[in-house]
Structures are given as structure tokens and as C-alpha cells.
Prior knowledge:
The chain contains five helices and no strands. The chain has helices at residues 3-18, 20-36, 57-71, 77-82, 87-103. The radius of gyration is 15 Å and the shape is globular.
Amino acid sequence: MNKNKFNTKNRLLIEFKKDSDEEIERLCIESIAEHAGISITNVTKENKLKKDLGYDSLDIVELILDIEGIYDLQMNEKSLSTKDLTVSELIEVVKELIIKKEKY
């Protein structure tokens, strides 16, 4: 085993954990923008997915499935797709689920 490679991997994991909130926000916003077909710069944390970004329930389910795949999470698509979440609220849901997952 190449020790340098192992150490590099550990450093990357430590860096990811240190910046994980920012990384979660970035990946969520990128996914939201991609699914809405808009630039990342047009997505703010205050935007509502349905009202401001034009999402419908199916779009939200597809977005949730994408985020689940990125973080290997189980989210309640039915519950989340019926609400008009803000970008910030969705990010908080993802963060909470990641924290719960890391505890187990």
C-alpha cells in the first residue's frame, strides 16, 4: 500500500469534514440550479423551490432522489414534495440527515 496515497485520502476526508457545511450547501445549490435549468448565481437560500424557481412536485422528487444519491440518504420525498421549501430549508434537512447518519 502506498502510504502517501492513504495519507492524502485521510487529509481529504478531514478537509471535507471541516468544510462539510459549505460543501453540502454548494452541492445542494448546484443540484437545485441544474434541475431548474438556471445558473447557480440565480439561486439564493431564500428562494422557494416552487414559487421562485418553478419546481413542481415531480421536480422536487427528482431533486431529492439526486441529493439522496450524492449523500446516500433516505429522505421523505412525499412529505418534502408537498411543501414549498426554501433552498435554506432543504439544505438544513440534508444537513440534519447527514448528522443522524454519521451518528449510526
